[in-house]
Design brief:
This is LysR substrate-binding domain-containing protein. It comes from bioreactor metagenome. The chain is 40% helix and 0% strand. By secondary structure, it is an all-alpha fold. The chain has one domain (3-71).
Length: 73
């Protein structure tokens, strides 16, 4: 479980850290979705996506097919 999800409970004493020296690889899904005007991506959004590309391991990343996105509308 990531610290992001457990921090409040750890801080309050409802959870405690075990196997602190073991790291399973920190594989946690991150989803980036922009729903807006096609062809127009705000600079702030582009900056976040660029940051993620630089700092997140994308070896296991996959793109959602455009056909799937069109079906969801």
């Amino acid at each position: 479980m990531s610290l992001y999800h457990a921090w409040d409970d750890l801080k309050a004493g409802r959870l405690e850290v075990v196997l602190e020296d073991y790291n399973a690889g920190d594989l946690e899904p991150i989803h980036a979705l922009y729903v807006g005007k096609p062809g127009h991506l705000p600079q702030r959004t582009r900056a976040v996506l660029d940051f993620l590309k630089q700092h997140v391991d994308l070896r296991h990343a996959e793109r959602v097919p455009k056909a799937f996105l069109k079906q969801r509308k």
